[in-house]
Each structure stands twice: as C-alpha cells, then as structure tokens.
Amino acid sequence: MSGQTAPAREKTYPLSTWSNMTCRAKGRFQDRDYCASAVMDQIVADGKSAIPALISQITDSRWIAEPVYDFWPRIRAGELAYFILSDLFLDDTWQKSTMPPLFPHQDCDDPSWVCWGNFRNTHSLKELQARWMEFWKINQDKIYWDGKARCFRLSDARIEGGKP
Q1: pLDDT, tens digit, for every residue of 109-153?
Q2: pTM for this structure?
Q3: Residue 3: inside a domain, yes or no?
Q4: Which one, of 37, 65, 63, 42, lies nearest residue 54 by Cα?
C-alpha cells in the first residue's frame, strides 16, 4: 500500500482512569471552582474539536475505578463522556441546556443515580452516541464557545420555549 497514509488517530481523553475528588459534588465539569481537572482543562482548551472526540468515547464500556459523583455507584467511561458533553452545553445557571434535548424528558423523583440507571436500562451507550452524533452532524457549524458562561451554545438556535 505504498503512497497511502494511515488515517489520523482520533483524539481521546483518559476518561477510563478518571480520578478526581474535586469534581464529585456539584457544579459543571468545566467550572474550575468545582472541578480542578487537567483533563477538563484540556477538553475546554480543545474547544469544538473536543465534541466529536467525546462523542467517539461514549461507547467506551470500561468501568471507572473510582466514583465520579458523590453517592453514585461506579459508571462507565462512556457515561462520563456523555455527562461531560451535557455539562458543556449547560448554561452558567446550571438550569438550562443550550441545545435541544436528545431524549424526551422523563420525570423521576428518585436520587439522580437511580434515575440515570433507569434511563440506561432503556438506552444503550451506542444509542447515546448515535443521538449525539446526529446532533453534531446537524449543528456543528452553529456551535460556538461562550467564554463568559463557559459553555457551548448554538448560534441562531431556538431552544425549548422559543428562546435563543
């Protein structure tokens, strides 16, 4: 196969070895006041290129040795990629997503880890990745980083309730 070059290896982040006590209680992963993490610093520094890299990691089914969140059971590396992506599209009030929902909202009054477990019982890592990939393909040219709010937003986008 002379004359052909190997495809560039896609960037990945060391999520399966995640170990960070400062990120376990509250806040978004990208908030340095709540999550002092070299991995998160690199993800934020990588900007938009971090999004497809994280999407590619959603199907990583390796268990993370230490809990990622306080009071939660262990999760898989792909679930961490999913949570990081979700936080990257969460505004600085921690209340509003800056993107349309990938899945219909399901009410759950149980602890968050139980609600997540119920959700995961019906949605595989492959499905989570497919929904994110579809969102990325449709919106990648509209996504920009809001440095003040430290989150990604969609330009000219209408989010729930018709508010940009």
Answers
A1: 999 999 999 999 999 999 999 999 999 999 999 999 999 999 999
A2: 0.88
A3: no
A4: 42
